[in-house]
Design goal:
The complex is a heterotrimer. Chain A is an all-alpha fold. Chain A folds into 2 domains: 2-37; 42-127, no CATH class. In chain A, 50% of the residues lie in helices and 0% in strands. The longest helix of chain A is centred in the C-terminal third of the chain and has 27 residues, at 124-150. Chain A is extended and about 70 Å long. In chain A, 47% of the residues are buried. Chain B has one domain (10-217). By secondary structure, chain B is mainly α. In chain B, the strands form 2 sheets. In chain B, strands 1-2 form a two-stranded antiparallel sheet. In chain B, strands 3-4 form a two-stranded antiparallel sheet. Chain C contains 8 helices and no strands. By secondary structure, chain C is mainly alpha-helical. Chain C has helices spanning 4-25, 29-48, 53-81, 95-99, 103-115, 117-135, 141-164, 169-193. Chain C folds into 2 domains: 1-86; 89-200, no CATH class. In chain C, helix 2 (29-48) packs antiparallel against helix 3. The chains are: A mainly alpha, B mainly alpha, C mainly alpha. Chains in contact: A-B, A-C, B-C. Chains A and C meet through helix 2, helix 5 and helix 6 of A and helix 1, helix 3, helix 6, helix 7 and helix 8 of C.
Chain lengths: 151, 218, 200
C-alpha cells in the first residue's frame, strides 16, 4: 500500500521538486545534530584582516605595487607572480585612496585588489566556468527569445 | 592521493593556480569516454522523428528546423566539455561549478523542443537543478570552513570532511543529474535529436561516477 | 561553547529547511520559479559563513549561477505556457520616463566605464536600460549578443595569459576587467529589454 502510494508520487514529474525538497530537509535535519562538533578552520586560505584606518578598508592587504605581497594561497608555487594583482591600484583608485577614506567600498569595482587576485589568477578556472554558465543561460534565453520574434 | 585504491597511478596534473586538475587511471578512463561521446555528438546526424497514427498505416516525419538541430548540437558538445571538466578537476568548488554547468546544458539541449510535454519536464527538471545549487555550494562551503581547503589533493586521505558535507555533495549532484529521479527524464527523451539527448544521460552517469570517487577519497 | 560559526550554521540550516519546505507546499509553476531564487540565496548564506576573502570571491559564481539559470528557466516557462504571443503594449507607462533627459543615461554609462570591472558593468548596463526604457528601442539583438560573445572570449584569453605567461599579469587583468565590463553591460541591457515589444 505504501509502496503503491510512493511510486504514485514518484511517477509524476511535477512532484520532482517536492521529492527533492524532502530529501534535502531530511539530510539537513540529520546533519544539524553534527553541527556543534564541526571545527572552524576556514581562515587557512586568504584570511581577512581589517584595518579601520586604511582608505582601502576592508580590502587592505598591504604590499607594494609591482612588488611581492604575501598572499595565503593554496599552492603559491603555481603562481610565480602571486600578490602583484593584490597590490595593484589603477591611477584613478590611487588618487581616490589619497583623497578619501572610503575607497575600500568601491575597490571591488576596479581592476586590482585581493578579490581580483583570487578571481582572475589563483582560482581563474572557477571564473571561467562561472562565465560559461552565464553564457549558456544567456544563450538559451536569447535563442528562445529570438525564435519567438521570428515566428 | 594516489595511494587510494580507487585512483590508480598518477598520469598527469595541470597546475592552474590553486586548482590542479589531474588524470589518474580512474579519471583518465572517464575522460576518454567523455571525449568519445563529444565526438559522437559533434559528427552524428540526428534521426528524423516519425509519428505513427494509431489504428492505421499512416505515418509522417516531423519537420525539425536546421537552427534547432544546430543549437542542440552546440549544447550537447558544451555538455560534453562540462562533463570533461567535472571529471578531471582537482578542486571541490570547481567540481560543483562544473556540475551546475552540466545541469544547465542538460536543460539547454532540450530547450529548443517544440513538444509541450518535453518542455514541461525540462522545466521541472530545471527547478530541481537550480535548487540543487544549495546542497552543492553548501557542501563546498562546509568543506572549506571545517578543513580550510578545497583542493582534493590536500583533502585526500585526511578523513577530515564531515559526513554532512559528503551527503550534501551527493545530494547536489543528484539534483543536477537527476540520477535516481529518472521520471523527469522519461519525458525529456521524447525531444528530437537522439544523439544529443543521449548526452543528458551520459553526463549524469559520469558525474555520479566522479562524485563517488571524490566522496571515497576525501 | 558555541561560537559564531556554529550559530550561523544552525541559523542557515533552519533557513534552508524553511526554504525547501516551501517547495513542498507550492504547486504553481511560476511561484516555484520565484521560490528557486529564495532557495539559492541560502547557498550564498553558507558560503558567506566562511568569512574570508576566498568566500567573498566564491559568492560571485554562486550569484551568477542563480541569475543565469533563472534567465533560461523563465524563457522556457514562457515557451511552455505559450505566453510568447500576447506581449503587453507598454509596461512602464510613466510620464517621467518620457521626459527624463538622456544625459542621465550617458552619465551612468561613463561612470560605469570609469569604475570598470563587474559593478562598473552593472552601472553601465543600468544606464543602457534607462536609455532604452525612456526612448523606446530599436534593439539590435544580434549585435549585442555577438559583442558579449567576443567579451567572453577575451575573458578566457586573459585567463590563459595569466596561467601560461604569468609575467604578463597586468595585460591580463586589464583585458579581464574590460571584458567583464562589456559583458555585464551587454547582458544587463538585454535582460532589461527582452520584453518582446515592438522592434526589429
Amino acid at each position: 500500500m505504501i509502496i503503491r502510494k510512493l511510486s504514485g508520487i514518484l511517477s509524476n514529474f511535477t512532484n520532482l521538486s517536492r521529492v527533492y525538497g524532502v530529501l534535502v530537509i531530511i539530510v539537513i535535519l540529520a546533519g544539524m545534530v553534527s553541527i556543534p562538533s564541526l571545527d572552524y578552520h576556514g581562515d587557512r586560505l586568504y584570511p581577512k584582516f581589517i584595518d579601520r584606518d586604511s582608505p582601502l578598508d576592508p580590502y587592505d592587504r598591504g604590499g607594494i605595487p609591482f612588488g611581492t605581497t604575501t598572499v595565503a594561497a593554496e599552492y603559491p608555487e603555481n603562481s610565480p607572480y602571486l600578490g602583484y594583482i593584490t597590490a595593484y591600484l589603477t591611477p584613478l583608485s590611487f588618487a581616490l585612496a589619497g583623497a578619501t577614506q572610503h575607497m575600500g567600498t568601491t575597490i571591488v569595482a576596479h581592476p586590482g585588489g585581493i578579490i581580483d587576485e583570487i578571481l582572475y589568477a589563483t582560482r581563474g578556472l572557477d571564473t571561467v566556468v562561472e562565465t560559461t554558465i552565464l553564457f549558456v543561460g544567456f544563450a538559451v534565453a536569447a535563442y528562445l527569445f529570438r525564435r519567438r520574434e521570428n515566428e | 592521493m594516489f595511494d587510494q585504491n580507487i585512483e590508480g597511478a598518477e598520469l598527469f596534473a595541470l597546475p592552474f593556480g590553486d586548482i590542479v586538475p589531474f588524470f589518474s587511471v580512474y579519471t583518465a578512463t572517464l575522460a576518454a569516454f567523455v571525449v568519445v561521446f563529444i565526438l559522437i555528438s559533434a559528427f552524428d546526424r540526428p534521426e528524423r522523428q516519425l509519428n505513427i497514427v494509431f489504428g492505421g498505416d499512416a505515418y509522417y516525419a516531423k519537420e525539425i528546423k536546421e537552427s534547432d538541430t544546430r543549437f542542440s548540437r552546440f549544447m550537447a558538445i558544451a555538455c560534453g566539455c562540462a562533463t570533461l571538466g567535472a571529471v578531471v578537476t582537482g578542486d571541490v568548488f570547481n567540481f560543483t561549478l562544473f556540475a551546475v554547468l552540466v545541469g544547465i546544458t542538460n536543460i539547454a539541449i532540450v530547450a529548443s523542443a517544440g513538444n509541450r510535454h518535453v518542455l514541461n519536464a525540462a522545466f521541472q527538471y530545471g527547478i530541481v537543478a537550480m535548487i540543487a545549487t544549495v546542497p552543492l555550494f553548501g557542501s563546498a562551503a562546509i568543506i572549506l570552513a571545517t578543513t580550510g581547503t578545497l583542493s582534493i589533493w590536500t583533502l585526500a586521505g585526511m578523513g577530515a570532511v564531515p559526513l554532512l558535507a559528503k551527503a550534501l555533495l551527493i545530494l547536489g549532484v543528484m539534483g543536477e543529474g537527476i540520477a535516481p529521479l529518472y521520471i523527469g527524464k522519461a519525458e525529456i527523451i521524447r525531444a528530437q535529436g537522439a544523439p544529443f539527448v543521449l548526452m543528458i544521460h551520459f553526463s549524469s552517469l559520469l558525474l555520479f561516477l566522479r562524485v563517488t570517487e571524490i566522496v571515497l577519497v576525501i | 561553547m558555541i561560537d559564531t560559526f556554529h550559530t550561523g550554521m544552525i541559523a542557515a540550516s533552519l533557513c534552508i529547511i524553511i526554504a525547501f519546505f516551501s517547495f513542498l507546499k507550492e504547486t504553481d509553476d511560476l511561484h516555484r520559479l520565484l521560490l528557486t531564487d529564495l532557495a539559492s540565496v541560502m547557498a550564498l548564506f553558507l558560503i558567506a559563513l566562511v568569512g574570508t576573502d576566498l568566500a567573498e570571491a566564491l559568492i560571485l559564481p554562486g550569484l551568477v549561477v542563480t541569475i543565469s539559470k533563472l534567465m533560461a528557466l523563465a524563457e522556457i516557462y514562457l515557451v511552455k505556457e505559450g505566453l510568447q504571443k500576447n506581449s503587453p503594449s507598454r509596461i512602464l507607462d510613466i510620464e517621467v520616463l518620457q521626459s527624463a533627459p538622456a544625459i542621465l543615461a550617458s552619465i551612468l554609462v561613463i561612470y560605469g566605464i570609469i569604475l570598470s570591472g563587474f559593478s562598473g558593468g552593472a552601472v553601465a548596463g543600468l544606464g543602457v536600460i534607462f536609455y532604452l526604457v525612456c526612448k523606446g528601442h530599436q534593439e539590435r539583438f544580434e549585435l549585442i549578443e555577438t559583442v558579449s560573445g567576443y567579451a567572453w572570449v577575451a575573458w578566457i584569453a586573459a585567463f590563459f595569459i595569466i596561467l601560461i605567461f604569468p609575467s604578463q599579469w597586468f595585460l591580463a587583468v586589464m583585458i579581464a576587467g574590460g571584458a567583464i565590463l562589456i559583458k555585464v553591460t551587454a547582458k544587463l541591457s538585454l535582460i532589461g529589454t527582452m520584453r518582446g515589444e515592438s522592434d526589429v
